[in-house]
Structure formats: C-alpha cells, structure tokens
Amino acid sequence: MTRIHVLRPAAFLAFALALAAAIAAGTAAASGAARAKPVPQRFTLLSANAGGKDVPMAVEAAGQINGIGTETQTDKDTPGGQTNYATLHFAHGTVRLRAPEQFGWKANLRTCTATASGGGTFTIESGTGAYRGATGKGSFTAHGILIGARSKSGKCLGENAPPAANYVTVKAVGTISLPG
C-alpha cells in the first residue's frame, strides 16, 4: 500500500515557492532562447605531424562549451590567404566555424627548421546536439615549429621532403551564444 505523506504548512509553502521558481525559470529560458546573450568562449587547437603522418587534431574548449574534443577541416585558398571550414567535435555535439586566415612558415635552411605564425577571425556558423543553433565570433592566433628532414649525410632536404616533425597551436578567443 502506498503511504500518503502530508506536508506541514511551512514545508508546503517552501515546496510551492520552489515549484513557482522552477516554472518561472523554465518560462524565462524558453522566452529568452532566441535572445541568448553572447558569453566569452575560448578554443585551443593543436595540430601535429611526425614522420609525415598527421596526428588527430585536438581541441580544448573553455566557456559555455567546455571540454576536450577533435577537429576536422577543409581549406579554400583565396587571394588574401585561405579560409578554413572547421568542425569541432565534442561529446555533446559539434560546432562549425568559418575562419579566414593569413598564415605562413619562415624557413631557416641552415638549422633545418621553420617557424610559423598567423591569425585571423572566426565565425561560429552552426552546431549540432547540445550546441544546435550556436552563433558567435572572435579572433585567433596561430604559431608553429617545424623540424625539417635531413639526408643521411645531414643535409637539410627543405621542401623536397615531408618534415621530420611539426606542430601548430591555435588560440581562439571570442563569444558564443547558445539558444535555450
């Protein structure tokens, strides 16, 4: 048999106030879904290559989106540089970015190394899962280091061979709005 629990007046009042607050918060969230305010968001990406083989691109997010994931992208060369179309993959969904950038390597054939720098802006165009309807924008900087391949005699092979190793770190800072 189910036992009936009777609330005392003070407990009933606390329950009624909590229920009213929950209903009001739900109504505010539903009505404010289209008016979500932009909040700070940071993405840090790491690209690496060792022995001519790419390591999966890693991404760390801090802000409204928080966690570790991976990144995939396609590039389109433009007269002013290139535009990257990136998808950030997280456990609860994806975020799609468009990021025009200027980026270049500066080689030092004497040391058989190169450094890279660049940057640009990004626009959050869409999302899936928990990030459906995401929008936002910001800027990013990119820095990298490359160790060139050498011949058996130690001569730097330069652009004639894949690098022995390289990595690029991208730091993106901006804002994001998530509906709901």
Characteristic terms for this protein:
mainly beta, 1 helix, about 15% helix, about 55% strand, elongated, disordered N terminus
Kindly summarize this structure in a few lines:
Helices cover 13% and strands 57% of the residues. By secondary structure, the protein is mainly beta.
Mean pLDDT: 83
CA-based gyration radius: 25 Å
Q: What low-confidence regions span 5 or more consecutive residues with pLDDT below 50?
A: 1-34
Portion in helices: 10-25%
User: What is the makeup of the main sheet?
Assistant: 8 strands, antiparallel, barrel
Structure description:
With 180 residues, this protein is mostly beta strands. It has one domain. The chain contains 1 helix and 8 strands. The chain has one helix at 9-32, and strands at residues 39-50, 53-63, 67-78, 81-90, 93-108, 113-127, 135-147, 165-177. An 8-stranded antiparallel beta barrel has the order 1-2-3-4-5-6-7-8. The protein is elongated and about 60 Å long. Mean pLDDT is 83; it is low at 1-34.
